[in-house]
Amino acid sequence: MQTLTVISIGLGLLGSAQLISPPRPKKDEYHLLIGTYTQKSSEGIYVYSFNTKTGEFAPESIAKGLKNPSYLAVSPDEKKVYSVGEMENGGAVYAFTFDTKTGTLDKLSSESSGGAGPCYVAVDRTGKWVIVGNYGGGSLSVLPVLENGGVGAPQQTIQHEGKGPNEKRQEKAHVHSINIAPNNRDVFVPDLGMDEITYYQLDEKTGKLTEGKPTKATPGAGPRHFTFHPSGKFVYAINELNQTVTAYAYSKDGTLTPLQSLSTVPTDFKGENICADLHVSPDGKFLYGSNRGHDSIAIYAIDAKTGTLKLVDITSSGGKHPRNFMIDPSGELVLVANRDTDNVVVFKRDAKSGKITPTGKEISVSMPVCLKMIPKS
Predict the structure, then answer these.
(1) Torsion of CA 138, 131, 221, 169, to 10 degrees
(2) What is the pLDDT of residues 110-132, one digit of tens each?
(3) Under 8 Å CB-to-CB from 90, ≥6 apart: which residues?
(4) What are φ and ψ of residue 203, in 5° steps?
């Protein structure tokens, strides 16, 4: 029987709510932040200037002296950046200030993530709370944001307990992402090991998470990443282990109702493959998911009325092990981070068909994992 144990670890200092509007970007000009594994030649978090109209880029800065700053999150005012320090023992959360003119990251603080192997970090819409998912530890922690933008020690850690039928990968709980809904209340946490999307409600005043009813996934599916449709009516999850995406209807009470699951790989593919990331296009018309092994991006058309999916195309990622990718704010470009070939490939996106084609531009970075964009000011 799968159970959840809640461990409260005292309240930290609360930062003030950050409801300031982000700076208006210069036309098409952004900073591209790349989180990495520092297991080979990477030095930390890389920042590039990036033009979303042309796909042109140039190096700006590197935040050094970090251990595996793999996944990143940006504060609502876009002046702070948070990163995990993905370590098997003693996982960390790093906090930085970000200069939107120069693209420079300055480290503010480092705190325990409350568990081993943190792989995902998110910030709530007030900017007061950072929530981190610990894959290795099978837990999630809430850290308060301090007055200067740094993070305090975890004030709440929730330990998942359970396993799935895949003895190698689902021997215990493995929290894989933290997904805060636009209402800033519903928090969905796919757990690969438990085959569940656990559900919590966030009190944005206190930062406390309260457990709700989880959504069971297909046994052996291994839910990983999760995204919301712009309409607010549907959500989508990508399942790492059984190579599928699942569409759900999303109710106001936080209930998820499964609608459909589709494969992410061609029917004749027989090799090894695990899924990773997924995103909905800004116009809400297409869903994209990444395959590691088949090394591709699967593209689906979304039915606006029903939220169901129809496969459009499966396109090479331009490298090996596309762990993370992003659609730029304009919806015109797709950037894919291929971890094992040390490259970020830039694709052009056709808004009508949803298909993507390589632009011939790519950024060379050792073991890229996560991509975020912040407008230049």
Answers:
(1) -30
(2) 999 999 999 999 999 999 999 99
(3) 112, 116
(4) -90, 105
